[in-house]
Design brief:
Elements: H1 13-32, H2 39-50, E1 54-55, H3 56-63, H4 67-79, E2 83-87, E3 95-99, H5 101-121, H6 127-144
Antiparallel strand pairs: 1-3, 2-3
Helix pairs in contact: 1-5, 2-3, 2-4
Length: 157
């Protein structure tokens, strides 16, 4: 029986990025379990709170989520009373998304727990390296963004 040449997964950026994402999802679930909100839902709620009235397609670009997924997640958050969708004045087919008071309260209650999850994700790095790591991630995303299934709008890179 021949042995396959070893292949070092730990030297592959894609593998490491996927693994770190899995770890972050687990940390977020631990920290935010009481809120019954996924990281994508949290991102959408955060973007809507920061930019109330954003049209759904623009919201998808803000958080890097494709239209179908976004529509599904927004509908679920609306059913929970955390968001509301308002038809556009000029084009009633467009839906503008607004946070509800309940949505804003939930975000405020989640803020510390979500921050802990983000901090725990990069806790192994010294503080100066954390900032450089995040800056490097932003640059990688900005430079390769067009290759993603749902390109997001990223600024400040």
């Amino acid at each position: 029986m021949s042995r396959r040449a070893s292949f070092p997964l730990a030297s592959r950026p894609g593998f490491l990025i996927r693994r770190l994402h899995q770890i972050h999802l687990s940390l977020f679930a631990e920290e935010c379990a009481a809120f019954d909100v996924t990281p994508v839902q949290f991102s959408i709620l955060s973007a809507v709170a920061a930019q109330p009235g954003l049209e759904q397609a623009a919201l998808g670009r803000e958080v890097g989520v494709d239209r179908a997924t976004l529509a599904n997640v927004v509908a679920r958050l609306a059913r929970r009373g955390l968001l509301r969708r308002v038809p556009g004045r000029a084009d009633r087919r467009l839906k503008h998304v607004h946070p509800t008071a309940s949505g804003r309260r939930l975000l405020a209650r989640m803020e510390t727990a979500a921050r802990r999850a983000h901090d725990r994700t990069v806790a192994a790095l010294p503080p100066r390296e954390r900032a450089r790591f995040v800056a490097a991630l932003r640059r990688l995303v900005a430079e390769t963004n067009d290759h993603g299934r749902a390109p997001l709008r990223i600024s400040g890179v």
